């Protein structure tokens, strides 16, 4: 795949140049349904069983990926003598005949990944040897062994980049890459390599080496001084020992993550290392043990067996750490290890450090002082440790003056040193979640001069992101955020933090944009969000809301999370409010909605630009049944129409038959007794006399 990138980049550049100059790139569809743009022909995924012979002769790049080509014959490329880049990935290629490239001597990029070249590798090797200008070759995913690879690349002395990833290579020695004197980059990842014996000693120009996802048990006597990037992650390495030498190593990036390292690696004494990745190992420091004993003078012996010779190397790991020059190191990732303390002066060797990751270890204390060499540190991650104390010597000097991100989540902290943020002039993000901390000010109990220990973040003007999730905050009051400009605040999983109203948040009314109040026992009674006009994202999930907070209607949120509450319905006029017009996503599942009051649901479905990501999970209740509002059965709809009909109209309909019956009865009685009634009236009133 890597071999395709330069060609694709060139294609994009050519298109961009054509557009910028006002020219229109003319696409053509030549025979064979291939697409042609300038000097690139794309025949990807055309079900071709052979190379089309009727393409333009001046083609420089030919893409034949994802086809069914079995053989690249001697005559396959005769028409394309200007070919520079050829890609045949994901075919069923078993053979390249020896004369296939005789008319393509200028080919400098060839991708043959994901084929079946193991079947006729010797004949394919003869074809490759006819490419004197080849610089990039991708043989990934061809079921090749180390012997096959050696034969295939034997005569390719011009190669600068080689990928043999995802093959069946198990052991490498000096004969495999012997003639690749110009090689700059080598990719060996995802093989079965368990041993490397001087395989790279002759590669004097090699700068990038990737041996990730193999089975290497150790790296000893590492002496590739010219190498800039080494990736040996995802192996089973327990030791990394650089050669004892005062030579300057060009090494800049070393990735040893996801291995089984027991000790901090023994690095070159002189190097240009700026990124050291040690994540997910089994490292610890053993100079001080938890029982108080010391191993300061204890050495470790390595027995190196090479053929009939045996070499014993004695190493004092602590001295080696001190003697390695780490002055250029900017990134150190030691997360997911077993480190419970750092040796004295360990960080003092790293004055250029900007990112330090020590999360998911066993640290119990961490000390900061004005004299620390970490003046350039911008990110410090101490999360998921066992920190009960964060030590700091706060005086007139700066402590971590350039720190921007400080992650202390999931520890045992109850308080931070007073004034620890006073001199962190650039701090923007602090994560204190999952610690048992309180925010200042805390009211003093009766008889006490001052309140309980608390964390004071007041006046930190640069702070924009703060997480206090799961800190056990209780009944906050006063002005804990006075003087800050927080934009993101996470108060989730604090069950007693909102026992009062939200008055203590008023200092953030103008700046707060993202607020999480998930799982805080929030009820509709105490909620008034009308002052937070800048909010764009609000999480109210996992609470006890029984009524939709009316104060939300005037806000211009873009995201609202109402999951897992007690809401029977939402206001049907939401789409016509400022909230409805600005809202882009709303989460609604896990609420006991009434199936007979879903007018609001229909309104939301018709709102333009509004997404309900969990819409498939939204349900409603009807007569102890749980139904989907998207497809209510017709009997339920009829029943709901009766239940929600206008009562006055219902009463009128019910009374109308009775009234009609009475009227008819009166009419019948009147008509039946009409004569008798007239006689009775005449008899009582008498006969009228004429004038």
UniProtKB/TrEMBL annotation:
Signal peptide segment: 1-26
Organism: Otus sunia (Oriental scops-owl)
Pfam families in UniProt: LRR_1, LRR_8
Protein name per its UniProtKB record: Negative regulator of reactive oxygen species
Gene3D superfamilies assigned to the protein according to its UniProt record, in alphabetical order: Ribonuclease Inhibitor
Entries under InterPro entries matching the protein: Leu-rich_rpt (IPR001611), Leu-rich_rpt_typical-subtyp (IPR003591), LRR_dom_sf (IPR032675), SLRP (IPR050333)
Any one annotated GO CC term: extracellular space
Keyword Membrane part of the UniProt annotation: yes
Coiled-coil residues: none
Alphabetical keyword list: Leucine-rich repeat, Membrane, Repeat, Signal, Transmembrane, Transmembrane helix
Keyword Membrane: yes
Residues passing through the membrane, by range: 648-673
Record-linked SUPFAM superfamilies: L domain-like
